[in-house]
Amino acid sequence: MISPSGNSAIRRNYKSCRPSRWISLAGALAAAATVSLTGCSNGSTAASTTAAQRAIRLASSTSQRVETLTARLTEQVNGATTGGMTGTVQIRLRPAPIIEAKFNIGSKTTSSIKLDEILTGNAVYFKNPAFAKKTGKSWIKVDRSQLNGKSSVSVAAMLQNLEGSNPLDQTRLFTSSRDVHRVGTQVINGVATTEYAGTYSPSVAFAQLPAKMRTLLGPTLRSMGRTHVRFHIWIDAQHLIRKADDSTTARGQTYLTTFVVTSVNQPIKVTLPTQAMTAPLPKI
Description:
Helices cover about 30% and strands about 35% of the residues. By secondary structure, the chain is of the alpha+beta class. The chain has a 12-stranded mixed sheet with strand order 7-8-9-10-11-1-2-3-4-5-6-12, with helices on both faces. Mean pLDDT is about 75; it is low at about 1-40.
């Protein structure tokens, strides 16, 4: 759900490839085929769903205790316009939160744009090609206290997107699924995992979110309308999520999004831009 933001030039290039939820259509269809072939009875299917729901809830709960995380994120958008996004994210939740996100965004009709964003407890830093040309500095720095008025609307949106960028948090949405089921096992980056697949309703997921996450994820969930989201998730023996992908359609566009966790609770290093490298947000 990370939605890089910036000035109008960035938004024009980005709006056709806006990141969505985390899920895989192919994975969900494969899971459905697996259930069909096994010929499970209604009773055994219900028991399987209940066990899978417990596994998803436990993984979501365990994820809330993660202190640091790195992940790779990708998204493919197909429909009236076609585009994509690839990137990485580093997150430290404790003792002092800090998030670094790096993305390459592009489509068939626009050139690729590279976006770097860093969020600390006091400020948000971002690289913006248009602003860099105007200010002569590679980074823009905006203090949280400055996020008011029309000139900082897009930066406020970026701040909200970064605050909601922990991919493990997105899996709270999966806990609302009523048809999640076990698919099988797979090794992800050398870690043995169990695969699950299912669907969820955006409105049901929203109703079950805590207040803070409703603020972060609410606009995206509401924009999806009544479309169900199909998801696929891989969980290891420590109940940690190692990979998840999703598929959904909104406003005629199909979004295929994947995240792969590359490290959990390992040291991360985020280097903040120096004062000489930054400029304040210019007036638009």
